[in-house]
Amino acid sequence: MVLDKIAAYVKEHGVTKFKYHTWRKFDNGRGEIRILVLDDGVARCEYQCAKCTNIGYVEAEWKRPFSTACAKCGAKIAVPKLRDAMKREMKKGSAEAGGEE
């Protein structure tokens, strides 16, 4: 997966301070989202759609919870909550451990 627009932006503008930054993969392993928000309040969002694998980039007003739509298929793309991801991983791990006995 090649999400390089935000990396290029950071390099070109020498960004060292920001309000928010995240880079997360989706559960199905087919997509990811990267968001960079500077002091201007604009979310620079780069994504690979988990549904159709389209790679896109959008700039929008930053607000939480943040979501956008895939430019190709229209699927909703949102930042997965870390807490929910951790719960799923813990549940998956305990199920796998229980299956080994």
Would you kindly provide a written description of the structure presented here, covering whatever features stand out?
The chain is of the alpha+beta class and 101 residues long. The protein has one domain. The chain is 28% helix and 32% strand. Strands 1-2-3-4 form a four-stranded antiparallel sheet, with no helix packed on it. It has a two-stranded antiparallel ribbon with strand order 5-6. It is globular and about 50 Å long.
For the largest sheet, list the strands in their spatial order. 1-2-3-4
Biggest sheet statistics: 4 strands, antiparallel
Low-confidence stretches: none
The domain tally reads 1
Q: Output the radius of gyration.
A: 16 Å
Termini separation (Å)? 37 Å
So how many helices?
A: 2
Q: Supply the helix-strand structural class.
A: alpha+beta
Helix and strand topology:
Layout: H1 5-13, E1 20-25, E2 32-37, E3 42-48, E4 55-61, E5 67-69, E6 76-78, H2 82-100
Antiparallel strand pairs: 1-2, 2-3, 3-4, 5-6
Summarize, please:
The protein has 101 residues and is α+β, with helices and mostly antiparallel strands.
What brief labels describe this structure?
4-stranded antiparallel sheet, 32% strand, two-stranded antiparallel ribbon, 2 helices, alpha+beta, 6 strands, 101 residues
